[in-house]
Design brief:
Layout lengths: L1 H18 L6 E6 L21 H18 L5 E10 L3 E2 L10 E2 L7 E9 L6 E8 L17 H15 L6
Parallel strand pairs: 1-2
Antiparallel strand pairs: 2-5, 3-4, 5-6
Helix pairs in contact: 2-3
């Protein structure tokens, strides 16, 4: 019942913002030379550089959902991902599990990116950041998740919320 009411309220707000001529919030994601990314493939057990198109699609969809959740109507964010190093490492020397990504304390996820935030009536805000999560193994919910990009998505959730979520008026 509550989710139905929440959906209805969001639809009314979206309609109201469109009626006032305010474009809805949006996120645009691009990848700068993905063929040179350090470790962005879930299907390549080895040390080849490059990004898996499925990883790029999944991260793009996730960032777009975060934009729908946290950005205000009229805000736009362009995120340029410059490098990805996924959590864990393949250990090809382990003959029984050569295609398994082992998660260890020293193999945390890292994403290098830059972003531009555009909002009505304010100057553009630009920044470059290295987003990483050294404590990714101790995140709640990790153990029960079957999402192979859980660590990266959880890390991006925190980063996006900290950068773009509306601050309560004080």
């Amino acid at each position: 019942m509550r989710s139905t009411l929440a959906c209805a309220a969001l639809m009314v707000l979206a309609y109201d913002s469109m009626a006032q001529g305010i474009p809805p919030a949006q996120v645009q994601v691009s990848f700068d030379h993905p063929e040179k990314f350090r470790d962005a493939s879930l299907n390549s057990p080895g040390y080849e550089r490059g990004a898996d198109p499925e990883v790029m699609k999944a991260l793009t969809r996730h960032l777009e959902k975060l934009g729908q959740r946290y950005l205000q109507p009229g805000q736009r964010v362009h995120i340029d991902i410059r490098d990805i190093d996924l959590a864990g490492r393949y250990e090809p020397w382990n003959s029984q599990a050569y295609n398994v990504r082992f998660m260890r304390e020293i193999t945390w996820p890292t994403i290098d990116l830059s972003y531009t935030l555009v909002q009505p009536g304010q100057p553009e805000r630009k920044a470059e950041e290295r987003v990483s999560d050294k404590m990714y193994l101790s995140r709640p919910g990790r153990v029960g998740s079957s999402d192979r990009l859980y660590a990266e998505k959880a890390m991006l959730d925190d980063w996006f919320r900290q950068r773009f979520a509306a601050r309560p008026a004080s």
